């Protein structure tokens, strides 16, 4: 018995394995780059809406010499750089996990391919040892018919097994090549992430230095303005105006969403009605045809089968004929936030320096929220589930986030060093949304926190579990 594989079998295996070694040297545009560009395009509309809202607030301002305005660009840039670093860290973790998964899959495929190669080698050896007889020679051999039949069946089995094994091997080799491309793309994405991280760190250090210089030059004016009751009143008025505008936008979006749901329900009802009418008409026609054939008395006439319901062409939803809805997504369902009274998560770990309704040392209006002292960079968390409707720098409050919790409830987080979320993002209770700071011209690092119902602030003390 020969114990070697025929040259034709070896050549076949080599040809198949060569498919797995072909490299892909052309330059790639990574999937990450495509998704990044698409995300930026989607956010452009929301940012335009936010900028328009900010301009509307600014047009009502009487004082244009606020010292903190000089810090706006720098503090916003610091926030953007920190958010980019936060996002890139998560991207890096996800990409490394993807690489590990691909490595595991590649190892599994390698073992499967090795097993299939051994099976194919065995089949080719058996075919060669059998004398490489074909079916015609076997039929004309004059041998025992039972043996001929048995051998023919064995040859058919071997042929099918070999074809199936070859097809499976080709598929696995193609999968190896596809995985190799995915691994290369993941590595390219990691290189992009590393470069983006370097850029973000460089930008962060640059803006930190710029802000420190501005703070040193503005320290006297900032300290003076912090003591002006009129400025504090204007800050409160500005925030109230922002909240009023956001409340209107949210309400607009709710009405638009309700109208769209009603329109979709009407379309679905119309389609169901049309399908039912078409089916009833088809059944009526079939019944009439059977009655006609029965009256003719044709021998052997068989009743027509019940027809299948006709296919109804899917109607594409027509565009809503109303004013375009604002580019802020609808809030979470009503009632979810109110049910959490007394159970809301604390927005930050720190010392409460000022409570709702307490007097300010410098005079002016009472606190319309709470000030919680915390170190710069401390984690700020969403107090409840909701959707971010504002994430930008605002005079008097620095980098500020506002979350819509549904049911006309809002929560506000101000003075942040960095904002980790953008307008439109959904957040969970306790999820990090920002880092504490002293932006907007305040002196001490911490968090301004406020809860509102129908645009009016109320005491968070009985709602939040501090």
UniProtKB/TrEMBL annotation:
<feature type="region of interest" description="Disordered">
    <location>
        <begin position="283"/>
        <end position="331"/>
    </location>
</feature>
<feature type="compositionally biased region" description="Basic and acidic residues">
    <location>
        <begin position="308"/>
        <end position="318"/>
    </location>
</feature>
<dbReference type="Pfam" id="PF01551">
    <property type="entry name" value="Peptidase_M23"/>
</dbReference>
<feature type="domain" description="M23ase beta-sheet core">
    <location>
        <begin position="367"/>
        <end position="460"/>
    </location>
</feature>
<protein>
    <submittedName>
        <fullName>Peptidoglycan DD-metalloendopeptidase family protein</fullName>
    </submittedName>
</protein>
<dbReference type="InterPro" id="IPR011055">
    <property type="entry name" value="Dup_hybrid_motif"/>
</dbReference>
<feature type="coiled-coil region">
    <location>
        <begin position="36"/>
        <end position="126"/>
    </location>
</feature>
<feature type="region of interest" description="Disordered">
    <location>
        <begin position="181"/>
        <end position="208"/>
    </location>
</feature>
<feature type="compositionally biased region" description="Basic and acidic residues">
    <location>
        <begin position="195"/>
        <end position="208"/>
    </location>
</feature>
<dbReference type="InterPro" id="IPR016047">
    <property type="entry name" value="M23ase_b-sheet_dom"/>
</dbReference>
<dbReference type="InterPro" id="IPR050570">
    <property type="entry name" value="Cell_wall_metabolism_enzyme"/>
</dbReference>
<feature type="signal peptide">
    <location>
        <begin position="1"/>
        <end position="27"/>
    </location>
</feature>
<keyword id="KW-0732">Signal</keyword>
<keyword id="KW-0175">Coiled coil</keyword>
């Amino acid at each position: 018995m020969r114990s070697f594989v025929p040259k034709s079998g070896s050549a076949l295996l080599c040809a198949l394995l060569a498919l797995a070694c072909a490299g892909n040297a052309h330059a790639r545009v990574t999937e990450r780059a495509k998704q990044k560009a698409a995300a930026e395009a989607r956010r452009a509309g929301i940012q335009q809406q936010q900028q328009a809202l900010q301009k509307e607030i600014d047009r009502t301002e009487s004082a244009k010499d606020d010292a903190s305005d000089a810090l706006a660009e720098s503090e916003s840039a610091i926030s953007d750089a920190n958010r980019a670093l936060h996002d890139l860290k998560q991207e890096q973790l996800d990409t490394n996990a993807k690489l590990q998964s691909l490595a595991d899959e590649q190892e599994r495929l390698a073992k499967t391919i090795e097993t299939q190669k051994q099976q194919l080698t065995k089949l080719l050896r058996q075919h060669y040892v059998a004398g490489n007889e074909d079916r015609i020679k076997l039929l004309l051999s004059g041998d025992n018919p039972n043996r001929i039949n048995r051998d023919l069946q064995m040859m058919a089995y071997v042929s099918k097994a070999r074809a199936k094994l070859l097809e499976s091997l080709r598929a696995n080799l193609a999968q190896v090549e596809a995985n190799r491309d995915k691994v290369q793309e993941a590595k390219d994405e990691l290189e992009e992430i590393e470069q983006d991280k370097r850029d973000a760190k460089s930008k962060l250090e640059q803006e930190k230095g710029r802000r420190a210089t501005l703070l040193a030059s503005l320290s006297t004016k900032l300290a003076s303005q912090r003591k002006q009751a009129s400025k504090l009143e204007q800050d409160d008025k500005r925030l109230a105006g922002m909240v009023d505008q956001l409340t209107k936008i949210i309400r607009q979006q709710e009405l638009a969403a309700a109208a769209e749901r009603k329109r979709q329900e009407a379309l679905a009802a119309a389609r169901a009605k049309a399908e039912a009418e078409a089916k009833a008409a088809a059944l009526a026609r079939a019944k009439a045809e059977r009655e006609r054939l029965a009256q003719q008395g044709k021998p052997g006439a068989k009743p027509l089968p019940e027809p299948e319901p006709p296919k109804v062409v899917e109607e594409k939803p027509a565009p809503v004929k109303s004013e375009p809805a604002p580019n802020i997504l609808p809030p979470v369902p009503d009632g979810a936030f109110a049910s959490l009274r007394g159970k809301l998560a604390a927005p930050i770990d720190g010392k409460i320096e000022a409570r709702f309704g307490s007097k300010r040392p410098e005079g002016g209006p009472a606190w319309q929220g709470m000030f919680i002292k915390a170190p710069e960079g401390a984690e700020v968390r969403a107090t409840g589930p909701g959707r971010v409707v504002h994430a930008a720098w605002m005079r008097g409050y620095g980098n500020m986030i506002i979350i819509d919790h549904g049911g006309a409830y809002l929560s506000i987080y101000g003075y942040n060093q960095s904002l980790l979320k953008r307008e439109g993002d959904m957040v969970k209770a306790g999820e990090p949304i920002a880092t504490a700071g002293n932006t907007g011209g305040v002196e001490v690092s911490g968090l301004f926190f406020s809860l509102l119902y129908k645009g009016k602030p109320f005491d968070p003390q009985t709602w939040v579990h501090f």
